[in-house]
Amino acid sequence: MDTQPAGGQHPRPTPRVVVGILRAVRGWLIAVTGGVLLFGCYLGVSAETDPGRQLPYFVSGGLGGLALVFLGSALLVADQIDAAAKARGRLDRQVDDLHRLIVAAASAPAPATPTTVADPAAGGQDDGGLFAVPAGRTYHRRTCEMIASKPAQPVDSAQIAARGLTPCTICEPKPAA
Hints:
This protein has about 180 residues and is an alpha+beta fold. The protein has three helices and six strands, in the order E-E-H-H-E-E-E-H-E.
């Protein structure tokens, strides 16, 4: 952002939107002025039948108007190119930041995760052990489909009673002794 002094205070930022609008208005204003000159040239030339008297209108209004239209168009195109370059720079910085985060996450040690219960389809045997998900309200057999891909932990009868767990209605585990 551009900064402007604010009467002895800290500099305050000028919004890029305002600067962008002023730059676009500048280009359009110059192009419209050129169009007005071209229109004046047309009116002056069309009112005269003598080519010698048309020439001053053509030179002053026509060529000057064309020059202003081209200049205004060039300013508008240059503003668009500048805006695209700034957007590209911002995108490049965001990609670099994302890359740094990914590299940092990849190099960081993996957090310890609770062991998951064996998948019954993978041949897990039911050894009579009881399991519960840490925030769950029910306890299950090792082969229960309800905890197949969840971080279930083994529980004993004291934990079942302390947490107020109820048996799963799908796998119907035998209560812990």
